[in-house]
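Q: What structure does this chain adopt?
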Amino acid sequence: VLMAIATIMFWMGRHKFIHVPPGGMAFIREVFSARGIKAILKLSIIYVCVAVFWALFDQSGSTWVIQAEDMNRHWLGIHWLPSQIQMINPVMILILVPLLGWVVYPKLDKVWSLTPMRKISLGLFVMAGGFAIIGFAQELIDAGEEPSIGWQVLAYAIVTTAEVLISVTCLECSYTQALRKMKSIIMGVFLCSVTVGNTITGNVSAIIEVPSDMHHISQAHETITGWMEENDGALPD
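A:
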């Protein structure tokens, strides 16, 4: 329903939005000019570091959901499904974007010049704090306890703060620091950092994967079945 409303709103404003025509050869010349290549390289250095952020952040839709299955999900009088906790992220974004932009940033900028690079650096440190909470919750689970899902909610609040500091700032830099005809390609380079981050997570997960108990049960079942077939249905001692 919301996407339908958004489509209608964009259609209604089609004569008011700025339409930038395709750049053609001028786009090619600008991309491969000295200034264009310098801009891509300068921002790519930042985006390589941001890829680490995405490697962590996107686990909220995978390993965090798995972790939530082993937690006490009765919170605020509701019994939450493991995947429902993810809704904290968009809700927190709607709260934090105006809060940081209109209140926190102006106040902090008075005592400490808040450049885009400092926002990104601060976001990376904040991100580490959110994952420290997730790590602590996992230690409780491994010890046989059933921690409250409130630990994940707190971690989501911290990680979403990092997302606003990093992702929103990078989107702003991608647009403002790019040459006039290079804004789309610079945005594409930034989005490549998401791909790199997810690739890192996928490779690490493949290396550290531990077979589940069901794997051992399946092996035992195959062994017993094979024994019974060879011994006329007799069970092993």
